[in-house]
Amino acid sequence: MKKYKIIILLALVGTMGVSNALAQTGNEIADKVFNRSAPENGESDMTMALINSKGKERQRFLHQFFKDYGDTEKSTMFFKSPADVKNTSFMNYSYDDDRDDDQWLYLPALKKVKRISGGSKDDYFMGSDFTYEDMEKRNPNKDLHKLLKTETLNGETCYVVESTPKEEGQYSKRVAWVIKDKWIPLKIEFYDEDEELLKILSITEYEKLVGYWIIVTQEMENVQREHKTVIGLTNINIENGIGDTYFTQRAMIKGL
Amino acid sequence: MNRITSFILKNNIGILVVTLLFTIASIVVMVKNIYLETDLDEYMPKDHPSFTNSDEAEELFDIRDAMVIAIENKEGVYNPTTLQKVKDLTKTLGRMEEIQKSDITSLYTADNIRGSEEGLEIDEFYKKVPTADKKLLSIVDAVTTNDMIHGLIVSEDQTATLIITKIDDEVFTEDFYHSIVDLADSYQGDGDKLYVAGQPIIEGTMAILMPKDMKTMLPIVMVLIVVVLMFVLKSFKATILSMMVVIFSTMWSFGIMAAFSIPIYAVTTLIPVLLIAIGVADGIHMFSHLQLYMTSNKDKTKEEKISNMISEMWKPVVMTSITTAVGFLSLLTSEVYPIKYFAVFAALGVLFAMVLSLVVIPAGTQLFGLPRRTKRSEMKSDTFSKASEWFALNITKYKKAYVVWTVLFVLFFGFGASKVWINSSFLERFPASNPIVQTDAFVNDKFMGTTSINVILEGDEENTFKSPEVLNLAEKMMNETIVKFDQIGGGISLNDFLKRMNKVLNEDREEFNSIPDKSDLVAQYILLYEMSGDPDKLWEVVDEDFKTGNYNFQVKTDNSKTLEDILEHLETYKNDFKALGVDVNFAGSGYTLLLFNNLILEGQIKSLVLSFFIVLILLALMFKSWKVGFIGTIPILITAIISFGVLGWLNIPLETTTALISSIAIGIGIDYAVHFIDRYKINALATSDKELTITKTMSHSGRAISFNAIVVIAGFLVLLVSEFLPNQALGAIVSLNMFTSFFGTVTIMFLVLYITNIYFKKKK
User: B508: domain range?
Assistant: First the structure.
């Protein structure tokens, strides 16, 4: 299974042939979310805002490329600002099997590409409130799913599904509000190992591009750390046939 | 006054019922409203510039005092059982309501930053507890090569490891303390010994222990004062009425405190003991007068005797109460809230005691009858009169000797007073045998230290802390300071992160264990760290704008002298930093302690001087003479000098309690002089005979004063057996001060009165 997916930032969910949602079970809903199609490649600008408990905000601007090679998913990100980290680049290979991701970072001041340890999936992505696991499509077989209820959220009819992992993991459970027919989880609550609410993911903006549902703005709030990350995408360009050269150490060094 | 007295005597039952009702009402309010405040930060004036600065920094960097659980295993902590305990304890603590998971640092949660062949790895030391020797050894290796963990979380000799938990001051309750201790205890065994330590534990324990200690000491003090009152007044009724006055006035004072929702601070718990000691004085003087009057006026009616007691004694009772209240109120100059509250409610209590003495004692005596005195006690009182007459004459005979001795005493103790130093150490208030002291000593011995001083460096623009120049100066400050002071166990700062990263990203070469030479490189290291580790740890040493850095030192003692020396040394870097546009400020538990310290000292000196002058003016007004005012302050001046002199010579540091008492001593000590001078004046004007005046005054006033001193001294000496050092000090100092005030009054002040011929001149 794909372990980490940076790509999911761009397309956490795609459309699926609209099924007639009659009596859906928790498992069926989870399968539908998992099996949505996603764009195979693309690029976009990305704004990452990190907001601490005092409301102080730090912003980063990046440009990202991604491409799905079937068994491997590759992505590269270049920092555009702040100025002192400009041209720093990050590359991630995520594999379908259980292997750890391979990650590299190029530091222009050191003029060296460094490998970062394929840290555990509960590591935070770039110091944000997203862990790598949060950005991964999780195989529904790993969890037990239960449909709790159906309710309206932000004007959308949502299935509220509780997913409990079969094996102990980063979270004790997740509760997702999945939009009926679009299969986008509009909101996910993450509970820590002591079953206390840890984080809330909210998808605040999504649009249909080239037949895919693309999440444009999403926000992850860690209620225990009182810290928030907002990730927004602009200049989205998908299925534009990105070349393989973007996913090499040479490309990282060369910069945008 | 006569009309009031006759009203009181007529309505004695009504008055006693009303006072009783007030007392019951006070108790009801107290039970409902009263609570204990143990948070030291609540003691500080919020708007004091030094505090606002350090508060800001403490909030910015989440600097909080940490509670520490230490696990010691003489065979070494790197074994599956101990590591399992570290993991379990970390998790259990994290589940506690009072604790935030992210505030816990242990070997289980710590980041292991290390270099690998190609780059950087930041991960945990272990997740699942390893059982294989090979894996255990790899942890040992990872820890010993990591300066950010070695000596910090695991002791250098590998026999102890810490679980450090930051807690908010307000979560510390007695229950919380017990649950932590019980938790630690439940992990004892298998060669592991567990300890609980840290500043919050010390402060919290003290805040809990001090009132608790007072609670056990108070009844003992009361019983003893009752016994001694019985001994000197020889009357059950007089003793009961005197005790009623002080108990009621204490209740009223605390009732009002509760009604205004003012919490009880550690220092407030001194009020009952003080009030009892001070309050009984009114009763002693009144009953002492009554008994003397009864002996010489046997044919007078009960009402006449009581009326005489009031008309002769109300003036000195009111005067002494006012001077005492003023002594307390002078503490309002303090910037420390509990001391302000202490001042107000102690003064209030004294005034209540005054009113109650003048009301309850006559009403009660009217209702229950005059205190009876045995024949034997009358004979004894006769002996006392003879002794005091001899004493008075003896003093006037050897004038010069008394003056010379007084001067010598004052010089000797005055020199001692110059050696007084202040200590705000909390730890040093516990006896060395206390487990808290021993635990702290253990943790301080094995690790970096439990008291922190944080140097807060604030640049004038963003990214100041990416500048190698600034970072290198800070590095110099850190290194030099740690080398200079043995008591500093170490420290942590942004520099440690940068040096560690620089080293591991350069193939772990020792020559790169230094600050990176370019600011972009610093920025990129930071980014790399953020991408690989827990960025929250970074925001404890630098702010997100890189404008302000937090350079922490851990100190192995909270002794004020040591902390002051360290701060003084750190101040020397101010100019160098200023040249780079960086301001130097301080924060941390050690710094707060020192500030607290200085505020207290400042307040004490202010209030000492103030109360002295107010008392002087009051005396001058009361006796309508500046000269008498000056003479009256002689005993308290001597008392203050001897009090500080003893502290200085015995090398006992001044701390909150001791400092407080010294300034109150003025208000209390003056009472003896007031009673004495008042009686001297009455006698002088009545007899115009100097010889007769001194002997009569000595046998009347001297008698009451010595009774008063005996009661108070006996009561307070009990506190010497308290297990709590400040309460011991309280007992010793009050006893000493009472004795010197008493002795100074009946010797040197008396002598000056005598020599100056005051109240006799006009007649000549």
Answer: 433-587
